[in-house]
Amino acid sequence: MLSSQSYVNISFFQPPAFLMIGIPGLETVYGWISIPFSSMYTVALTGNCLILLAVRRTSSLHQPMYYFLSMLALCDVGLTFSTLPTTLAVLWFDHRLIGFNACLVQMFFLHSFSVVESSVLLAMSFDRFVAISNPLRYATILTNNVIIVIGMAIVARATLSLFPVPFLLKRLNFCPGKVLLSHSFCFHADVMRQACADITVNILYGLYVVLSTGGIDSLLIILSYSLILHTVMGLASPRERIRALNTCVSHILAVFVFFIPVITMSMIHRFGKHLPSIVHALVAYVYLVVPPVLNPIIYSVKSKPIREAMLRVLREKGWS
């Protein structure tokens, strides 16, 4: 007769691997779909690496605004590498399996880089507020040491917020027959729904992370721009107002590019369960792939110093 301890061990199950669906219903055209995905990953990595090289090699860009832009570019590189291996493995080679622990690791980094990006966008809004409201003290307020502290705080915040998530999932009992993930990467909401146990704690903690990071960040960004607008309206010259607001355009576009897909995806996951699975998949891809692609384009188009520095790097490398 089995002891109670043996019974517990046998009744507890975690799958050795999950099966990633990718984009449901489009399996027959994965070869064609891989072309735009490969192109977007190439643009994202090339553009963000160019920004990092441009800022590093151009002394005139050694300013707080461009240091924060470098943080954003580095975060976008990390976010791209978080999804690239499994997405291209599914599209190119139809390799759909991902080990349980590997899935948790990917999920941790994927969500951590998302939190980092949200935090960096908040830091950039603070940078714009200081630059516009107190330009004479801008360099003395945002010193290199202050920027380093902000960067370390951003990384620590993301790490501490997401660190419990994999362990909360590892304690769950999973169903042997439920191993299908609706994306080509591991999402927290997707993984926890494969469990055959009470996931209330996971749901509540996931909601806490979303509200305490992206929720607070978005509110503080709105507050920053309210204060910026109040300051700009106090300027006497209309030309000065336009000039001040023009320095914020790139950041505002980056905020929209990041937060609109985040909000859309959160709403769909909570209230759009009746929608086709392809809608969930496409929104997730937009959220994870599009911002790293668009951010370098936005800043290279709207910021002349960045554009010139990037072109200089290309000429030095002999790419143009």
Compact summary:
The protein is mostly helical and 320 residues long. It has helices at 4-11, 30-57, 64-93, 100-133, 138-141, 144-162, 164-170, 188-192, 200-233, 238-246, 249-271, 277-302, 304-317, and strands at 17-20, 97-99, 180-181.
Q: Layout of helices and strands, plus pairs?
A:
Elements lengths: L3 H8 L5 E4 L9 H28 L6 H30 L3 E3 H34 L4 H4 L2 H19 L1 H7 L9 E2 L6 H5 L7 H34 L4 H9 L2 H23 L5 H26 L1 H14 L3
Parallel strand pairs: 1-3
Antiparallel strand pairs: 1-2
Helix pairs in contact: 2-3, 2-12, 2-13, 3-4, 3-12, 4-6, 4-9, 4-11, 11-12, 12-13
Percent range of helical residues? over 70%
Report how far apart the termini are: 75 Å
CATH topology call: Rhopdopsin 7-helix transmembrane proteins
Q: Topology as H/E string?
A: HEHHEHHHHEHHHHHH
User: How much of the residues is beta strand, in percent?
Assistant: under 5%
Biggest sheet, open or closed, and with what strands and sense?
A: 3 strands, mixed
What do you see in this structure?
75% of the residues lie in helices and 3% in strands. The chain contains 13 helices and three strands. The protein has helices at residues 4-11, 30-57, 64-93, 100-133, 138-141, 144-162, 164-170, 188-192, 200-233, 238-246, 249-271, 277-302, 304-317, and strands at 17-20, 97-99, 180-181. It has a three-stranded mixed sheet. Helix 3 (64-93) runs antiparallel to helix 4 and helix 4 (100-133) runs parallel beside helix 9. The chain is globular, with a radius of gyration of 22 Å. The N and C termini lie far apart (75 Å). It is a multi-pass membrane protein. One of its GO terms (biological process) is cellular response to lipid. Residues 47-299 form the G-protein coupled receptors family 1 profile domain. This is Olfactory receptor.
